[in-house]
Specification:
- The structure is a single chain.
- The strands form four sheets. Strands 7-6-5-11-12 form a five-stranded parallel sheet, with helices on both faces. The chain has a four-stranded antiparallel sheet with strand order 1-2-4-3.
- The chain contains 21 helices and 15 strands.
- By secondary structure, the chain is an alpha/beta fold.
- Helix 7 packs across helix 8, helix 16 crosses helix 20 and helix 16 runs antiparallel to helix 21.
- It catalyses: tRNA(Arg) + L-arginine + ATP = L-arginyl-tRNA(Arg) + AMP + diphosphate.
- This is Arginine--tRNA ligase.
- InterPro entries: aa-tRNA-synth_I_CS (IPR001412), Arg-tRNA-ligase (IPR001278), Arg-tRNA-synth_N (IPR005148), Arg-tRNA-synth_N_sf (IPR036695), ArgRS_core (IPR035684), DALR_anticod-bd (IPR008909), Rossmann-like_a/b/a_fold (IPR014729), tRNAsynth_Ia_anticodon-bd (IPR009080).
Length: 583
């Protein structure tokens, strides 16, 4: 039971009944929302309906609000209706509504909150997509967790989701990786090597060099680079992808599709086909670009070149597709790749990128509009940097120097649960401080412990009930039959009200592509639950288990079970375990 969706429907019905001319204006009615009032003292629900429709109706918002309010005079679920400010309508609901919410949680179980806002729309979530030049580091970890949680959230909200990893295996960095691995191959054969600046010096290439010896012996030593580069590149790429998959598995992340950039290139490849299509559509021309403002980049060339009409689709400038040497730009590959996604039937394309790609959003959005004829949209999400702290000191990392903090290092030290939850306990586009000491602390200051402890506490309460009231039946059917009307205190109703907002939180987070909202909600629910438990220590009448009142105990256990189910569902969506007890 989604109280907010239920009343959005009722408010819309009341609007149409009062003003029949609105019946066909679905776009206007879609702007009507029902949400919690900013101040809980104003009621349970609030709607902007009167202010949305007043101007099109040519009426005063409070006049419209009065007409809507009259329609709820006989509604058995509504205790009172008040008009506030410029025309907000605030509802106070009967306690029986919240009891129905709790019954709905018991009935639906893990499906309470599951939505169909996506209505089966095909969504591609491409995330991590790090260059396959080494193990995942902590910067990749944030994008990996965000993308994975977002994919789970969207699937739960009714979208048809595909999780994809784009392998950047066509750039010069892969040649540098192969040359670095060849040095390790020579080292494995007994040579003393020196790794030049710009190569990859990490120890993770040592076993690659040893594996090359096992495969080729010393046969590559006397060959020129053009002879050994291709086989070494193939070998090291396979090894790096295996390493990346293993790293992601440590976070319980598995992609369904690994898409190779190399497949876009070459005669008859996707890039060539896409450029031909763009030319047919009149979206490519030969011209000159204005020089960028400020200091000119080292690779700036003032020349006539092949340009994509990106500004026609909302970008700031048109974009070059072919370099002076005849090779394709990175953006040409990006257009071809996203067209490939569109041709696979996806209508929403979500790219999760690192902060160093901050300027990419408009060009990708323009490309998707162009190649889909406006039928698909792109949402480019950036994950800001993660600052690691250890004993108050920053942990330095540099992939090229080999002195890096890997994803595996973080998971090994603090565990998958803490890693995933803390990566989501802040907006993806805001910088994140990851404090090793905090995330290992068992206190209320550690958000993941605080939420998991709340879930474990629900089981502890049931164990206490079994100990103190051994004759009390607490099976699912017994809890479903509890007299929920006994739940009438302000604390009880407040906790149920928060549980009742879970479906709305899921739908809103899915539409906004913001899984961090779920982490915030779970922390708020845990805090309210812990607070209720704490009041029971001071006031025995508020305890969940009351030896003298089995009926009230059963009703409160139904409330505890509701908290358990919602916490469990939320943690599962975030990819975090929901323990029954904590050591």
């Amino acid at each position: 039971m989604d109280v907010f969706a239920l009343f959005e429907g009722r408010v819309t019905d009341a609007l149409i009944a009062s003003f029949p001319e609105l019946a066909d204006n679905r776009e206007l009615l879609a702007r009507v929302v029902v949400e919690p009032p900013r101040d809980a003292a104003h009621g349970d629900l609030s709607t902007n309906a009167a202010m949305v429709v007043a101007k099109p109706l040519g009426k005063n918002p409070r006049e419209v609000a009065a007409a809507i309010s009259e329609r709820f005079a006989g509604d058995a679920d509504v205790a009172s209706v008040e008009i506030a400010g410029p025309g907000f309508i605030n509802f106070r609901l009967q306690q029986s509504v919240w009891h129905k919410v709790l019954s709905s949680i018991a009935e639906l179980g893990d499906d309470f909150g599951r939505a169909d806002v996506g209505q089966g729309e095909k969504v591609n979530v491409e995330y991590v997509s790090a260059n396959p030049t080494g193990p995942m580091h902590v910067g990749h970890t944030r994008g990996a967790v965000y993308g994975d949680a977002l994919a789970s959230l969207l699937a739960y909200a009714g979208y048809d989701v595909s999780k994809e990893y784009y392998i950047n295996d066509a750039g010069s960095q892969v040649d540098t990786l192969a040359r670095s691995a060849f040095l390790r191959y020579r080292e494995a054969l007994g040579e003393t090597i020196e790794i030049p600046a710009g190569f990859y010096p990490g120890d993770y290439l040592i076993p690659v060099g040893q594996a090359l010896v096992e495969e080729f012996g010393n046969r590559l030593l006397d060959k020129p680079e053009e002879a050994w580069l291709a086989p070494v590149k193939q070998h090291v790429l396979a090894a790096m992808l295996e390493l990346i998959r293993a790293d992601l598995k440590k976070l319980n992340i598995e992609h369904e599709v690994f898409f190779s950039e190399k497949t876009l290139h070459g005669p008859g490849g996707e890039i060539e086909k896409t450029l031909a299509w763009l030319r047919e559509e009149g979206l490519v021309y030969e011209g000159r670009l204005e020089p960028p403002k400020g200091k000119l980049p080292d690779d700036w060339e003032d020349r006539e070149q092949t340009l994509f009409r990106a500004t026609q689709f909302g970008d700031d400038v048109d974009r070059a597709l072919v370099k002076s040497d005849g090779s394709y730009t990175y953006f040409a590959a990006d257009i071809a790749y996203h067209r490939n996604k569109v041709l696979r039937g996806f209508t929403t394309l979500i790219d999760v990128l690192g902060a160093d790609h901050a300027g990419y959003a408009k060009r990708i959005e323009a490309a998707v509009k162009a190649v889909s004829g406006g039928k698909a949209s792109a949402d480019v999400r950036f994950c800001q940097l993660v600052k690691l702290l250890r004993n108050g000191e920053p942990v330095k990392m540099s992939k090229r120097s080999g002195d890096l903090v890997t994803l595996a290092d973080v998971v090994e030290e603090v565990g998958v649960d803490a890693t995933r939850f803390m990566m989501l306990f802040r907006r993806n586009d805001a910088p994140l401080d990851f404090d090793f000491a905090l995330v290992k602390e068992q206190s209320k200051d550690n958000p993941v412990f605080y939420v998991q402890y709340a879930h474990a506490r629900t089981f502890s309460i049931f164990r206490n009930a079994a100990r103190d009231l051994p004759a009390l039946d607490t099976c699912e059917s017994a809890l479903a039959g509890a007299d929920l009307s006994l739940l009438s205190t302000a604390d009880e109703i407040e906790l149920i009200r928060l549980l009742g907002s879970w479906p709305r939180q899921v739908a809103a987070a899915a539409r906004a592509h913001e899984p961090h909202r779920l982490a915030f909600y779970l922390h708020e629910l845990a805090a309210q639950f812990h607070a209720f438990w704490g009041k029971g220590k001071e006031d025995p009448s508020l305890r969940f288990v009351n030896d003298d009142d089995p009926k009230l105990t059963l009703a409160r256990l139904a409330l505890v079970d509701g908290v358990r189910r919602v916490l469990g569902s939320g943690l599962d969506l975030l990819g975090v375990s929901a323990p029954q007890e904590l050591s």
